[in-house]
Amino acid sequence: MSYQDIQEAAYEANMQLPKLGLVLFTFGNVSAADRSKGVFAIKPSGVPYDQLSPDKMVIVDFDGKTVEGKLRPSSDTLTHAVLYKHWEKIGGIVHTHSTYATAWAQSQRDIPIFGTTHADHNTVDIPCAPPMSDEMIQGDYEYQTGFQIMNALKDRNLSYEDIEMILVGNHAPFTWGKTPDKAVYNSAVLENVAQMALLTEQINPKAPRLKDALIRKHYERKHGPHSYYGQ
Ligand SMILES: O=C(CO)[C@@H](O)[C@@H](O)COP(=O)(O)O
Predict the structure, then answer these.
(1) How far is the CA of 134 from the centre of ligand 1 (A)?
(2) Where in this chain does the record put each Class II aldolase/adducin N-terminal domain (predicted)?
(3) Ligand 1 contact, 27 CB (< 6 A)
(4) What residues are annotated to the active site?
(5) CATH number of 3-222
(6) Residue 6 near residue 39, CB atoms below 8 Å
(7) pTM above the 0.95 mark?
């Protein structure tokens, strides 16, 4: 892949965010990695989506250093870099402030697995990492956010392949996938599931968690060998 190829991929994936209603103004960013070159292309910071073009995507290495590009890379670049460096099978990362997922993050709550829509994609509650400590905020905040995400999965005995989405307490969601398109898909799924979970709790504050048998049934119907779903 050339730099131009990952810039195109990052551009196309970024442009999906406003189309899917996942971002307002500049509230988010997508990156696309090229593992053979050890770099990723990421949205420039603060540039509105209607002013983006593939050549504006900034090429950055897995330490977060700009390799090519005139604009400043997203302020979340170091978080993307940490995750690419430690999770060798991912090819795309998305960060948004989509309304419902962010509301759960601000509430510092995991999203409970209430129904089969959730179970079609995940067999567990969607984790919410703890808010960043004062020390982390004053230190390498974006870099530490990457570790906060990784540690929250570890605390739940989950790998980045078991689940491709997380909330960061008081902040917002991050999703990832083998490709930037899959990471965007995961972002849209997360937002939809977050909305349904909120409505479920409003309609019935005592709504039960989905039974394990139904979680397994719905997940297994969609995944496994020869499944196109979630590729
Ligand atoms: O988290 C935040 C803001 O709280 C950022 O992700 C969001 O504003 C997007 O920033 P960038 O324009 O990518 O630097």
Answers:
(1) 19
(2) 8-198
(3) yes
(4) 120, 229
(5) 3.40.225.10
(6) yes
(7) yes
